[in-house]
């Protein structure tokens, strides 16, 4: 696929790296020629130096025959205009823009063919707010991901010394949960992913990812580790867009306090929220500290000492962008362990005559190496993956890849033959 990316910052550069590795034809636009040169030296991409919303610059980038434009600069306005120009002058079929300001995103009518013709809006603030909210909801989790509109969830937990799952084979853990079907989908041991088997033994400090129906998550967590007490009080340091949205989202369930250094922003927060403003740090007794890290390279360095969970907004955003770029009816793409592996949700279409998966049992599907199926969501029912489970049309299939280079093979697995129209 021929794709133009406008903006070579953390998100644009990382996105270009991922898409180029999947054999897409990528052209990156940015005003910083040094940054472009640095990326072109290590990636198989084209680059154009210039203003990403200027028609001439887009033309030089090959907008005439581009299939998709993704605008991810730090400016909402440039991203919006780039999509407008791509549509009006070049008829680019698909246009995706990162829009951060709630002043824009709250008006859906702005993003229509008659106004700014943007097909997909990516809001990093909303994505990060949702990610933090899920972590607050499940104390003890290091990552919580929704599939099929939240019907199934993937939860990552740290195995600690003396914990109930350390030293146990996965088959033994499953026997202790007869009323809650679950599957350990991935394990990260010493920063390397391993595909779990029934005889795999959990070791201390493993990051263990399991999938289950949403209503079974707490029961499974209680079997895998000592349950942390539910949070009652949440302190948010920083009253910017993410801090304010998070406070507004959770203040009905928790006692929320926000600290903000700018008086005018404090006044706005006081008007929008029902709680006071304060500051609490880990060294002063907070039981859990979650922080946002601007540079993804620092996440592993800071996490685990005074910071329990470090979240990279760029990494969260990349997963959402990949969902809309990938082929093969993907409805969700998540990155595990800062991109070391991926979890995919793919809708199965067609029938037994033209699909490689529909009508087959999971045991009969030939999966690429390093790929496993964790669960299937069929309507409101969550089916944990077992060999006898048969894939049906419109099933949401949840898959795990420890090797991202296998993504294209997974896409082909779900592509239809010519008999389906």
Q: How many E-type strands?
A: 20
What's the story with the biggest beta sheet?
A: 6 strands, parallel
Helix content: 25-40%
Strand fraction equals 25-35%
Question: Rough shape?
Answer: globular
Please, how many helices? 13
Runs in which pLDDT lies below 50 for 5 or more consecutive residues are 278-284
What gyration radius follows from the Cα positions, in whole Å? Answer: 22 Å
Overall average pLDDT: 86
Strand ordering within the main sheet:
3-2-1-4-5-6
Name the structural class: alpha/beta
**What distance lies between the first and last C-alpha atoms, to the nearest angstrom?**
22 Å
3D structure, described in words:
- With 421 residues, this protein is an alpha/beta fold.
- The chain is built from 13 helices and 20 strands.
- The chain has helices at residues 10-21, 33-42, 55-60, 76-90, 102-105, 124-137, 170-175, 217-224, 241-250, 263-272, 299-302, 313-325, 407-413; strands spanning 2-6, 25-30, 46-49, 68-71, 94-98, 120-122, 141-147, 152-158, 182-189, 192-194, 207-213, 233-237, 255-259, 290-292, 309-311, 330-336, 341-347, 371-378, 381-384, 396-401.
- Strands 3-2-1-4-5-6 form a 6-stranded parallel sheet, with helices on both faces.
- A hairpin with a 2-residue loop joins strand 9 (182-189) and strand 10 (192-194).
- Helix 6 packs across helix 9 and helix 6 (124-137) packs across helix 12 (313-325).
- The chain is globular and about 65 Å long.
- It starts with a strand and ends in an 8-residue tail after the last helix.
- The model is unreliable at 278-284 (pLDDT under 50).
């Amino acid at each position: 696929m021929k794709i133009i990316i406008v903006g070579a910052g953390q998100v644009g550069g990382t996105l270009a790296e991922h898409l180029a590795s999947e054999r897409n034809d990528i052209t990156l636009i940015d005003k910083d020629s040094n940054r472009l040169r640095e990326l072109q030296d290590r990636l198989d991409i084209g680059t154009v130096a210039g203003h990403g919303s200027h028609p001439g610059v887009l033309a030089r980038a090959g907008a005439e025959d581009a299939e998709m434009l993704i605008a991810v600069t730090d400016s909402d306005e440039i991203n919006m205009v780039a999509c407008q120009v791509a549509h009006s002058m070049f008829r680019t079929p698909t246009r995706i823009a990162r829009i951060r300001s709630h002043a824009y995103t709250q008006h859906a009518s702005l993003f229509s063919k008659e106004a700014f013709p943007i097909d997909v809006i990516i809001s990093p603030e909303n994505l990060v707010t949702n990610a933090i909210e899920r972590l607050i909801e499940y104390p003890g989790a290091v990552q919580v991901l929704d599939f099929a509109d939240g019907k199934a969830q993937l939860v990552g937990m740290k195995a600690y010394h003396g914990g109930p799952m350390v030293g146990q084979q996965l088959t033994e853990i499953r026997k202790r949960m007869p009323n809650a079907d679950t599957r350990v989908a991935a394990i990260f041991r010493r920063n390397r992913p391993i595909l779990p088997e029934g005889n795999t033994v959990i070791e201390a400090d493993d990051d263990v990812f399991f999938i289950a129906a949403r209503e079974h998550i707490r029961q499974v967590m209680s079997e895998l580790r000592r349950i942390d007490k539910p949070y009652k009080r949440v302190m948010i340091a920083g009253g910017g867009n993410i801090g304010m949205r998070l406070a507004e989202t959770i203040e009905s369930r928790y006692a929320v306090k926000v600290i903000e250094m700018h008086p005018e922003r404090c006044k706005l927060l006081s008007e929008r929220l029902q709680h006071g403003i304060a500051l609490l740090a880990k060294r002063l007794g907070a039981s859990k500290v979650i922080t946002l890290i601007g540079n993804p390279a620092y996440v592993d360095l800071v996490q685990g000492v005074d910071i329990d969970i470090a979240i990279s907004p760029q990494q969260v955003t990349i997963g959402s962008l990949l969902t809309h770029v990938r082929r093969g009816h993907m409805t969700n793409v998540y990155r595990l362990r800062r991109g070391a592996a991926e979890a995919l949700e793919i809708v199965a279409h067609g029938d037994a005559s033209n699909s490689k998966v529909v009508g087959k049992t999971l045991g009969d599907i030939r999966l690429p190496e390093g790929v496993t199926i964790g669960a299937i969501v069929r309507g409101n029912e969550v089916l944990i993956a077992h060999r006898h489970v048969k894939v049906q049309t419109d099933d949401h299939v949840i898959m795990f890849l420890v090797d991202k280079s296998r993504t294209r093979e997974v896409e082909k697995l779900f592509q239809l033959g010519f008999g389906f129209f």
